[in-house]
């Protein structure tokens, strides 16, 4: 199952939620896509040729998504014609990217910045992208990947992140003043824009973690969807989180992740504190299991073809005397990886399997809702 998950031909491009990946030339956009969704080895990305046209990756994880890898030249050409404060109220073709997709069709933007290069001009372009996107689609999420941080020291990494965040927020505050009369009186772009920053590299798990966070936020739905939801209805993200919390309570798990196996990104987890070192162990274990994907890649989807519990793959790895990582396949896309005390896993294997059967059914129902 290495690479992009099998695609659902019944899902049209129009039905997929769009994610734009944009940024300056040689920032590492295509390298990230190749490593996460096509299982490229990080060292092989050094020999990739520049992207000349938009590349599309369809992702059927917990929901149907479409990632558009946009060449840096498209960003440069677009920014030249981007809306100015004086004409920001116009809604013409200039608020679209070079491939002519309106911002209203975009759920999230990933903007990749090269942390090892001079990034002042890249942040000016980012500001123009954010302003244009927000004017058309206030619900849009903007995710900034501060990329290629593997060559930086720990202190310099976080100094760079703080500097970039400060420059971006200051730019948005300045844009708010420039757009007075266009924006609502109480709107401040530095507060209103849904902006997230990540330190990323293709040489570790950070890019996978960033995509995991993006998927989780998309499952939360837009603000307008939340406002118009019936009383008592929760988002798919909250429902999956609650299911993980209940499972951890019933099975005494220390941490639980619902992973999309082919991409090695997770779509949900419980609410216990995030531990980066523990996540890296779980991630490496998932990578190890992918080497044996033939053992479970052909198992049919639980939603369409119910199968016996024993037909689903499981695996256990003891990390230390008292800590174990356990894997349970949920369907041909999803799997649960949990960190559990070794004694709990050894003494309660039958109860764990029973609870996992109930959890599998719940996740299958949520996945069906997400993909419908």
From TrEMBL:
- Record InterPro entries: Gtr1_RagA, P-loop_NTPase
Q: Does the keyword Nucleotide-binding apply?
A: yes
Taken from the UniProt entry, a GO cellular component term is: Gtr1-Gtr2 GTPase complex
Instruction: Please cite one Gene Ontology biological process associated with this protein.
Output: negative regulation of autophagy
The answer, when asked if GTP-binding is one of the entry's keywords, is: yes
> Which family, according to UniProt?
Belongs to the GTR/RAG GTP-binding protein family.
This protein is called what?
A: GTP-binding protein
Native organism: Malassezia restricta (strain ATCC 96810 / NBRC 103918 / CBS 7877) (Seborrheic dermatitis infection agent)
